[in-house]
Amino acid sequence: MVRLRRWAIVGLWCATAMAQQAGVYRVGGDVKAPLVLQKPEPEYSEEARIAKLQGTVLLSLTVGEDGRTLDLRVRKSLGLGLDEKALEAVSHWRFTPGTKEGKPVAVATSIEINFRMMTSASEWHLARATFTAPEGATLPSVTKAPYPPPSGKAQEGSVALAFDVDEQGMAANIHVENSSDPQWEPEAIALLREWRFQAAVRNGAAVVSRGSLEFRREAVGPGK
Q: Which residue, among 47, 43, 22, 52, has the nearest Cα to 218 in the 3D structure?
C-alpha cells in the first residue's frame, strides 16, 4: 500500500497579476500580509492516489477583514481531483487578517498547496494530468496505473505524453509532447500502455477523449 505524506506550504505575497478590486489591497508598504491561524490539510483524491500524482496547486484568493477566504481560484492546476481538494481545504482556512496602517483590511494573496506521496528514489510518478472530452461527454478517469519497480538509475527524467483514451479505456495514438532526454521516452510510453481508464461517456455510450500526462522520476543520491 502506498503511504501518503500530505502537507500545505503557504506563500503569502503581493499578487501583482491580479486586478485591483475596490477595498482589496496587495501586500507592500503599510499593507501587512494576513497570517494563518487554522490550516486543515487537504486530502488526496482516490484517482490521484492511484496515479501517484504529485505536485503543487497554486491558488489565488482574498483574505477578508474577518480572516475568512474569498474569491478562491486555481491559478496552477494538477488535475485528477487535487485542484478541488486544495480549494475545499483552503476554503476552511482561517487567518489573522491583513492590515493597513494597523487596521484590518481585505488582502489579495496566493497560496501553494503541495501534494506529496511516499515514493522511492528513481521511481516514476505523475506530475501533471489534463483531459478533454467531446462536448456533452464526461471526462475519462484513471482506474488502474501500474508503475515499473524502481530501476536504481541515478538520472532524473521527465516525459510528457499526449494520447487518446479510446472507448475501451486504453491509451491509443500516444506521442511525446516533450522530454528531458529521449532515453526516457520508450519507458514512459510502455508505462502508459499498461494504464486503464474509465472512458468518457456521452448519451450513455463511450466516446474517444484526449489526455496529456507528464511523468517524472527523481535522481538517486545522498539524502534522496
A: 52
Query: Domains in the chain, please, with CATH?
Result: 4-117 (3.30.2420.10), 124-217 (3.30.2420.10)
Which of the 8 DSSP states describes residue 9?
B
pTM of the model: 0.83
Radius of gyration (C-alpha) of the chain in whole angstroms: 20
Question: Would you state the cell numbers that stand for residue 115, as one nine-digit string?
Answer: 501534494
Spell out the SS3 assignment of 69-104. Answer: EEEEEEEECCCCCHHHHHHHHHCCCEEECCEECCEE
In the numeric block, the cell 485528477 is attached to 80
Task: Judge whether residue 153 has pLDDT over 70.
Answer: no
CA 159 vs CA 51, 131, 173: distances in Å:
15, 17, 16
Query: Per-residue pLDDT tens for 170-208?
Result: 999 999 999 999 999 999 999 999 999 999 999 999 999
Residues in a beta bridge with 214? 128, 160
Grid coordinates belonging to 117: 506521496
CA–CA separation, 104 vs 65, rounded Å? 5
